[in-house]
Amino acid sequence: MTFWEWDGIDGNLTRKIIDMTRKIKMMIGLIIGMTECYGQSSIVTPYFSAVVVSNIEVSTKWYQSVFDLKAKNQMNDENAGYKLMILESSAMLLELLELRGSLVRKALVEGKSEGTEIQGHFKIGFNVSNMDDWLKHLSNLKIDVPQVWTDQTTKKRNFLINDPDGNLIQFFEAI
Predict the structure, then answer these.
(1) 58: helix, strand or coil
(2) What φ, ψ does residue 81 adopt, rounded to 5°?
(3) Which residues contact 49 (CB under 8 A, 6 or more apart)?
(4) pTM for the full model?
(5) What does the alpha-carbon distance between residue 94 and residue 96 come to, in Å, rounded to a whole number?
(6) Disulfide-capable partner of 73 in 30, 86, 136, 171 (CB 3.0 to 4.6 Å)?
(7) How far is CA 85 from CA 50, 69, 96, in A?
(8) Who contacts 122 (Cβ-Cβ below 8 Å, separation ≥6)?
(9) Among candidates 95, 84, 97, 92, which has minimal Cα distance to 47?
(10) pLDDT averaged per 10 residues, the chain (length 175)
């Protein structure tokens, strides 16, 4: 039944119009939200991240507790030298990889001048709607938040934490 057809027996017209209106608004929002990319309109949203870790079990528990992720898939191949865990929520997909032969970040920069970094991804950031709830959540998990910064222009806060392998994760108060 289309939204303009009315079921005279139970009067569902209003509900059907509201449902169709929501769908139309969502479609309009998608169209308006399109960005120019290489001359074509497309929507670009983050899909997933992958992190190389030293201990898949420790990191799996950590990421599950911090982001409320559930295990989706797990693969272990001793011959190929990897363990893989895919975690997900309705908002996020995360792949954890324990790879034989992976190098520890700290060891690579040890003995180098202060401020030396490895090229490539440096950190991942998240927008959070309630900064105080996130700070409390992390405190309950005994995760250290060494400093909270406040942007002088927006007055919004942000902070960095480390996962068990020292990978940086930043949280930004939603603007």
Answers:
(1) helix
(2) 80, 40
(3) 93, 94, 95, 124
(4) 0.72
(5) 6
(6) 86
(7) 10, 11, 5
(8) 168
(9) 92
(10) 42 50 53 49 79 96 96 95 95 94 86 86 89 96 96 94 94 89
